[in-house]
């Protein structure tokens, strides 16, 4: 996103919780391609909880199945902090518990257009054409173009 004269933007912080390193790196790469410069990776729920506290994100992308555990207790912590969530799973959307069924899902294998659509669904609009994207950014005064402010 181009800053208007006198405005400075920063990329929203994203926390990806994914136990498969190859998939986590793929998400990180796709997010970077879409203009997100602060992408943190957690490979288990404990690390996800720690990063949620130490580096609070403006967005979470959470794999539904983390090892033998489900991510929903961590998702509840995101929800309590009003942090938008995108779920990542190869499961059908109908397999999500009803309380999470309104959250967007990015399937596996990752598709950058589907990721961009999911980002738009939670307020992080991107325009993807080929391999270029115009990212959604936060003005340093804390607002974005739609008036939305990042969590504090």
Name some characteristics of this structure.
alpha/beta, Rossmann fold, 28% helix, 11 strands, 4 helices, 24% strand, two-stranded antiparallel sheet, globular, 5-stranded parallel β-sheet, disordered C terminus, 152 residues
Global Rg: 15 Å
Secondary structural class = alpha/beta
**CATH level 3 topology:** Rossmann fold
Shape: globular
CATH C-level class is Alpha Beta
Give the ordered list of helices and strands.
EEHEHEEEHEEHEEE
**How big a fraction of the residues is strand?**
15-25%
Number of domains: 1
Q: How would you name the CATH homologous superfamily?
A: Response regulator
Largest sheet: 5 strands, parallel
State the total count of DSSP E strands.
Answer: 11
Helix percent band = 25-40%
CATH architecture: 3-Layer(aba) Sandwich
Could you characterize the architecture of this molecule?
By secondary structure, this protein is of the alpha/beta class. It has a single domain (10-139), classed as 3-Layer(aba) Sandwich (Rossmann fold), CATH 3.40.50. Helix content is 28%, strand content 24%. Strands 3-2-4-7-8 form a 5-stranded parallel sheet, sandwiched between helices. It has a two-stranded antiparallel ribbon with strand order 1-11. The radius of gyration is 15 Å and the shape is globular.
